Amino acid sequence: MFEYEGMQTAAALLSPGAEGASGHDAPARPAVRSGAGRPTRRVDHLGDARAALERITALRSRVAEMEAPRVDVQGLPTATALQPLLPGGAIRVGGAYAVQESVLLAMTMLQAASAEGAWCAVVGVPSFGVEAAAAMGIDLERLVLVPDPGDQWLTVTAALADVAQIVLTRPLGRVAPGDVSRLSARLRQRGGALVALGSWPGADVTLRVTESVWSGIGDGHGHLAERRATVTASGRAGAGRPVSADLLLPAADGAVRPAVVGAAGASGGVDSPRVLRPVAVAS
Q1: What is the pLDDT of residue 42?
Q2: N or C, which end of the chain has less CB nearby within 10 Å?
Q3: How many angstroms separate the CA atoms of 194 and 102, rounded?
């Protein structure tokens, strides 16, 4: 089991009493005075051994839990709003998906699988909001965060692909074709998928926000209420015709859902039909 020093579950970030990597306060050791009168620490070898055993036992238990049977060997579920944009309406096992710029859109890719019990991991995305993820229904107890992996981001991503069913990562620099192939093979073997925040070579689908408008602001006053966005999906190497959907990203309640325009131009709610239209390919 790979254990990166910056790795922790998202739930630990919200725990007010959490300290240290293990989440347990180290027991205080009595101070004694040396002959010179300076206080020294008594070495508690038995206590150290017990603490190490507890950490190993907890780690083994966590690994066993993360290696539990997968949610679906054929595909991973995704949010209803994104289903029309993905082939088969699901995330393909072993697949790679690129999301351009929008952290909220990338977060939405994790939502449905997490709600059904899948482990998810986020690598190199310090702007990923834990409270926003919880509000969307992402299970923080099954969400591993490595906000700053540095130049080891690909190594960390590959390691987490062994235990997490969806890994969201922000690529730093060019990714070699050999690394892409090895990571894809690992994802297929483990029943997982990759979501890249940015470009990814050979991505099955690339999602990007092509139009966006906020509502809620009046004549110089008011608050931003919701954003209506057009999300466009394009296939690998331009295969197929790009498709777009109008989404509330987010809606006034923070959720992401399909949007529809009525006669008066108002955006509709979750029960409204989805609006889909082909997108012309620029020459």
Answers
A1: 59
A2: C
A3: 16
